[in-house]
Amino acid sequence: MILLQNARIATENSPVLVESDVLIVEGIIQNIGTKLAIPEGGRVIDARGRVLMPGMFDAHVHFRAPGFENKETITTGSEAAINGGVTGVVMMPNTRPALDSATAVATVLENAKVRSRIPVYTSGCVTKNREGKELAEIEGMRGLGVKMLTDDGDTTADPAVLLRAMQYATEFGMFFASHCEVLELAGPRALNEGVMSYRLGIKGSPACAEEIIIDRDIRLAHAAGAHVHIQHVSSKLGMETIRWWKSRGDVKVTAEVMPHHLMFTDEHIGDYDTNYKMNPPLRTQADCDALLEGLIEGVFDIIATDHAPHTPFEKAQDFLSAPNGITGLDTALVSLYHHFVEPGKFGWDVVVKRYSAEPRRLMGLPVAAIEVGQKAECLLFDTEAETTFTKEFMKSKSQNTPFIDQTLKGRVDMVILGAEILLER
Amino acid sequence: MARKDLLDIASLHREEIEFLLDQSTSFKKLFTRSVKKIPALEGKSVLMLFYEASTRTHSSFEVAAKRLSAEVTNFDVAHSSITKGESVRETIETLQAMRTDYIVVRHGHPGLPGMIARQTTASVINAGDGAHEHPTQALLDAFTIKEKFPDPRGKKVLIIGDILHSRVARSTSTLLQKLGVEVAYLGPGSLVPKYVPASIRRFTDYEAAMAWTPDVVYLLRVQLERQDVQFFPSVREYHRVYGITNTRLAEISDLGLYIMHPGPVNRGVELCDAVMDYERSLITNQVENGISVRMAVLDWLTPGGDFPKQEAYAAQPRAGSKVILP
Ligand SMILES: [Zn+2]
After folding, report:
1. Fewer CB within 10 Å of terminal CB in chain A, N or C?
2. How confident is the model at residue B1, as a pLDDT?
3. Residue A22: enclosing H or E segment and its boundaries?
4. Is A273 a residue of the active site?
5. One of A215, A306, A382, A413 is an active-site residue; which one?
């Protein structure tokens, strides 16, 4: 039994926080109200001033297992999630071997059951070994609960292959997540093509390389009657393309935006800082502004991190040699608070809706609401405290993040899942 | 306070540039003496780390170092196996263990010399990193221009060619602008990006560029070997549209303009054969000046640990410098 006293509860429907006591009995929220009686033998937590919200859900993470356990494992990845207030994740299938069959998916899910304290879901490949040629064993993966199909890391280059996959898998109620990039235009995929790429002497990746596929894949979904989910949008025109298609209303399209694309620009790369090297790349302030607008407006259904761990050794190379990607699970919620909620750019409702409720709906899962009768799946957030993202603080195996050693406003104090307290600071 | 590394032009201060150019003048005077060697770097070691072949820059640095009495070592870069970043890091550890004083590095990856500089106590000189920078080339270009125009402020330099892939264009235009020179670019639309700094004028055809009345026409080398994608239809068309043809050379000669090129020249592409005999061609001057400029750079840098990176300071000859010549 846990009684949280005087917590300020955040919901997806209103930016206003409602102060209440919340009583959790055997992992179920049994009562919400003022001045609830202190249960005998129960634990009482004074949550005054702190925000209580549903656990976050990250629908785009790379846990690197199997195949790249030196970067991350299911254990370290899910602990990083808990550290950041995330209580459920969807893995991307670009592992080695790639998750393109029932066997591969089954192995990962069984592993996750033992090695993670939070539910870990996975997406499956569209094509065998993510090669873009032959369709993966889609129906077999559906039997194991896979809903999302993606060759993330790469675009399914051949539109005919993707169209056929869409026609086939839509029958099974599955949807497609698109990594949008014309490889021939994208060069070494290091940074945005523009003033900064010119200054640094690196062939940039133009925004149009992304925008072309955003449009192409929505058109394919339109033709196939499929649901397409556009991953990690980084450009203004990309956002506007999705907005336009959504306004037509005759195709099922959802989209996601990453915290880093809302907060950083290519200027942050400075003197070749590989912690800002990611794909799609950081673009310009105008793109950041447009993405924020798209998030507030709802063009973006969800926030996800694209948590992409790499070893310090790999990231310590020169800019061209270093791999793309940054970690995000440890830092997402605090950085969203620091950059947007605290300065009043948007309210807690946007965070709860876009990083907790909608991602669960996208995956066909029940929403983790703080309501009587629901399973307790929540976190306590201290808006006055600060978090310093030291190497020791991070639970991810890798620390390739621009936030390393930065101090931001806000702290995840406690994470509760069912009857268990997963984190307590 | 002195500087440990020379990685780019962008972070150099005007005073530092002028100091280096003055020093180069002093070193150049040395060339007419019978004994061309001075003991400025005696007992010091210079390591040449060239991941990309370059006879010209390599030998220029080597001669410069030897004239300062330094010991020169060529690090054996096996081109096949050492192209990956990881191998470079292992190499850096080896270099640090060798306690060399100076490392002259050329690599195809932008920013890599900076990475080496951060991990060694040696002074690192960027001898070209991808399409990023080539600072000593910029210094020798500026030096060559200053020999003809002692006060280069207000002079105009037209750079023609592959701006996109050219570290020379980046470094030289940055440096010239710091000296008050006006710079303009001309080249194929596929090789002159729209987002070059606004301070640089951009021309789309040769006639308009000439109407701007440049003092120097600087041709960039067409890096045919680098063109994995086709940026222009043919070498013949390139020569016709952007090259110095015989007709254009006559016009340039009438106007009394200087011609520069970082070399080696693709004859019949950037320049017609007749340019080799053109009296205002500064191409051989550039090669010659490369040595004195590199001597000035080697003499100026101070190897050692704990140097704050890219910090502002006033340019000064380093303490105990023996090379301020009459
Ligand atoms: Zn991706």
Report:
1. C
2. 54
3. strand A18-25
4. no
5. A306
